[in-house]
Amino acid sequence: MTVSTGRVVIITGGSRGLGAGIVQSYLDSGDRVATCARSSTDEIERWTNDPATAGRFLFRAVDLSNREQVDAFVKDVTDEWDVVDILVNNAGVARDGILALTPDDDVDTVIDLNLKGTLHISKLVSRRMLSRGSGHIISISSIVGLSGYRGLAVYSATKAAMDGMTRALARELGSRGIFVNSVAPGYLRTEMSHGLDEGQLDQIVRRTPAGRLGEPADIARIVQFLTSPDNTYITGQTIVADGGLTA
Ligand code: NAP
Fold first, then answer.
1. Looking at ligand 1, which atom is closest to the CA of residue 188?
2. pLDDT > 80? residue 21
3. Residue 176 Cα, ligand 1 centroid: separation in angstroms?
4. Which runs of E-coded beta strand occur in 160-230?
5. Following CA atoms 218, 229, 25, 13 in sequence, which dihedral angle do they give, to the nearest 10 degrees?
6. Which of 11, 16, 73 to mutate to test the pocket of ligand 1 (most atoms within 8 A of CB)?
7. What phi-psi label fits residue 17: left (phi over 0), alpha (psi between -120 and 50 degrees) or beta?
8. Quick one: pLDDT band at residue 5, thresholds 50, 70, 90?
9. Do 41 and 92 touch, CB atoms closer than 8 A?
10. For residue range 212-229, what is the model confidence (pLDDT) as tens digits?
11. Kind of pairing, strands 178-185 and 57-61?
């Protein structure tokens, strides 16, 4: 793969789990990385203080469901580095439970972050990309947006909507040099999957042709390819990365 360095990359929710894996992969490529989450973590402190990454890593405590905070975050990044080459919409939240019993607050929390937060930061960043005539927007959706999952109706709805946004934005922005794709992971070993018990995880592994859960690095490699100079013709697509679970 062609390695290009020094790009400006925004990754939402990079404080842990998949987002942290994606942050690490772009820092390893020599890029400048900005991320946000509601609170900091040891990973964030490490990137902030390590001389190898300190000058090209920016973290802000931001609630992505708050538009003013997102506006200020994107402004901070562009004040610092002027441009945004890549946006990775990774931050997401799930609330388990059958829809009939789901509190309205939970519906709002999931939609406000996964859908409205993703749309808002994509709007701000795509404006900057339009003025330059280049860029990549990647959204991390999920196989449950394609196949559904009992107890995850609201989450599944937001993930399907993110794939819809991807297809529409790819049409809107393709002629202006901006590629838009989503990656739909299967089950990953992160905090989000801690809600699944051992029995459920064993069953998922048994049904997965690759014979294991996904790791953040499995997904980070795909995001890297899609945003690399080697991706000259894939846009508007949802790339499923689930070890064959939904094959
Ligand atoms: P995770 O471990 O729970 O991490 C979520 C990240 O998002 C954290 O950095 C979190 O930080 C941040 N975040 C949550 N709410 C936020 C808010 N309101 N504003 C700003 N940041 C917020 O989740 P993950 O497993 O890495 O998931 C990452 C993405 O992959 C999500 O979009 C998820 O839907 C998707 N995905 C995950 C799986 C899986 O099996 N884990 C499978 C398919 C797709 P704070 O809490 O400090 O804000």
1. 40
2. yes
3. 30
4. 178-185
5. -90
6. 16
7. left
8. low
9. no
10. 999 999 999 999 999 999
11. unpaired
* CA 94–ligand 1 middle distance (angstroms): 8
Q: What pLDDT shows up at residue 193?
A: 82
Q: Given a cut of 80, is residue 2 above it in pLDDT?
A: no
pLDDT digits (tens, 9 = 90+) for 179-202: 999 999 999 988 888 888 889 899
pLDDT band, very low/low/confident/very high, at 108 (cuts 50, 70, 90): very high
Q: How far is the CA of 204 from the centre of ligand 1 (A)?
A: 20
Instruction: Look up the pTM and report it.
Output: 0.97
Q: Report the atom number in ligand 1 closest to the C-alpha of 19.
A: 26
Lowest pLDDT segment from 1-15, 22-36, 136-150: 1-15
Which residue's CA is the nearest one to ligand 1's atom 8? Answer: 13
Three-state DSSP class for 142?
Answer: coil
Provide the CB-side half-sphere exposure for 98 (13 A, CA).
2
d(CA 59, CA 36): 6
Strand, coil or helix: what is 50? coil
Asked whether 135 and 129 are in contact (CB, 8 A), the reply is: yes
E-only strand ranges, 111-202: 135-140, 178-185
Q: Is 155 a catalytic residue?
A: yes
Q: Is the CB of 35 under 6 A from ligand 1?
A: no
Question: Nearest Cα to 125, choosing from 161, 89, 154?
Answer: 89
Candidates 4, 9, 26, 12; CA nearest to 221 is 26
Give the contacts of 230 (CB within 8 A, at least 6 positions apart).
1, 2
